[in-house]
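Forum > Structural Biology > Help requests

Title: Can anyone predict the 3D structure of Septin?

Hi all, first post here. I have the sequence for Septin but no way to get a structure on my laptop. I'd be grateful if someone could post the structure tokens.
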Amino acid sequence: MTANIRYKSRIPVKTEDSTEEKQYVGFATLPNQVHRKSVKKGFDFTLMVAGESGMGKSTLVNSLFLTDLYKDRKLLNAEERINQTVEIIKHTVDIEEKGVKLKLTIVDTPGFGDAVNNNECWKPITDYIDQQFEQYFRDESGLNRKNIQDNRVHCCLYFIPPFGHGLRPVDVEFMKALHEKVNIIPLIAKADCLTPNEIKKLKDRIREEIDKFGIKVYQFPECDSDEDEEFKQLDKELKECTPFAVIGSNTVVEARGQRVRGRLYPWGIVEVENQSHCDFVKLRNMLIRSHMHDLKDVTCDVHYENYRAQCIQEMTSKLAQDNRMESPIPILPLSTPDVETEKLIKMKDEELKRMQEMLNKMQQQMHEKDQ
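Reply #1:
Sure, ran it for you. Structure tokens for Septin below:
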């Protein structure tokens, strides 16, 4: 996002002949200061991928970030998959592009949905997300808050099989188990298995079932009135495109005299970056170029705040129970992406006041016992 701000690159020298320079303060350079500090520090992003084996998760991630995160991976045979349980595997890579550094962490979930009985197969995944929230809460409550490492999961790409007529029960249960903890972006995997009409019908069906079952997937923020028309058009296309029908490929083929990433079939070539073939480009633009920061903001301001409020509630309730207090603190309402910042601040202030009142009562009771 570019800002139409004009500033001088040096501190002006005061002269009698320059009225404009006398009136120059210098806060117009703040955007550049923030930019320099952010670029120097670098950025981090944690992406989780979930879905059955064979849905092209690894290939898509490599295609998105133009890197090979799975070169040391060992593929299990059919016999080894029988007793396989859901694992959590992290892959971290440092990527640099035009001087901007990104620490990318991919959280893979091999074994999910592969068993005959998939009852609560999402439990290790929800536990992992909660563990990252808990670690961040501990670090944030500690003394050294300057170098806190953010390992919270900012986004979960959930791969839906292209076979079938919509969401399966395991898809519904998985997304409902995670939708209060992480930003879920549903994807239709291996879209080259379907015709354009089949993709459209499947998308409509999935959107209907998401509404029917009350699943909260990631909601794109509304565009501000001062946004440029190009961004507004991009935002509109992204909203109409979900769930994204994607194809991944790490091989380069020749099409129309050009070398492109795609898949070669007897009937023709499927190009990964051809928007008439799949939604890969739209997904990449959304995930990396336009909404990565918003995904991090929603994680911090909504999902983590919900977890933090719940932890504080449990701690204060336990404290009240231990001291046999009869006035438990009311449960704080969960945040939603549409809650205004002022309302959130007010709610936190009220929470602190209630905690202070509890401490005062406890001190008074202890003082009376001593007497």
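Residues 37-69+76-320 form a domain with the Rossmann fold fold (CATH 3.40.50.300). The radius of gyration is 25 Å.
Shout if anything looks off.
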